[in-house]
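A further point concerns the way the authors explain their paired sequence and structure data. Each protein is reduced to its one-letter sequence and a matching series of backbone shape codes. An entry of this sort, consisting of the sequence and the corresponding backbone structure tokens, reads as follows:
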Amino acid sequence: MGRRRKGDAVSGWICLDKPRDLGSTQAVGRVRRVFNAQKAGHAGTLDPLATGILPIALGEATKTVPFLMDADKTYRFTLAWGIETATFDEEGAVTATSEARPSPEAVRAVLPTFVGEIMQIPPDYSAVKVGGARAYDLAREGVAMRLEPRRVTIHDARLVAAADADHVTLEIDCGKGTYVRALVRDLASALGAHAHVSELRRTRVGAFTDDFAITLENLENLCHGGAPLEALLPVETALDDIPELAVTAEDAFRLTQGRSIVLLPRQVETLRARLSASRVVSARHELRIVALCEMRAGRLNPTRVFHP
């Protein structure tokens, strides 16, 4: 007989507005304690110095984390001109200074060169693995390394504010793997200047936006009031871009047993028109997600099964 999990079987997503100076793992731990949840995880790490959207999965929602990891994101960040640091943020030691203060017009002029598919070298202080070790660990030990360029996608980049000559605030929509600190490094270099990130906020991860965000303080207040479940978003919130198919009670049972189901020709045609390269379909019964499936040869084969 299997060991019973500690905690409650709570399932859903929390769109957490992570505060500054709190690590992503610490944030997950605090949310998990609020719900006394059996399982918890997060989609897309935020540095302790960053604020904003940190989607946290509880229970059955942890099965959908991989789909959110690939989601597009939006970041708003402020560059502080004149000082470059080892980490390209406020935490690192100063490595270079300059008097150059590019104008907002100069920044706008160069931004289009960073839009689209670009090659980006991650910062040395990043979670990229080098020979099995994290780059930031090697950097802290003073180990010299050369990180390889990676292809990333920036869908749009725009200047949103310039508070004074020393600061400019930008916003980008980007794909996975994009490093804001690396973008600031490269942008400053293109303008003949030095800069670092003084503020960074993530405002969107897929369907998770500021509109759904809740602070830890408000979440803990809901808990003290006996109503933390009011903040839970449905498990399928992370599956915003995945086509759905309503199935019968009999087919739902088969899928939960790990067995495939046969699709009608019209169902196949409808799904084919909406499928991406992954061929993943969300099967539902009576508004509840039953399974994530792969469509092959006119059948749905369950890959992840969800329990009530």
The radius of gyration is 22 Å. The chain has three domains: 12-71+207-238, 73-204, 242-305. The longest strand covers residues 150-164.
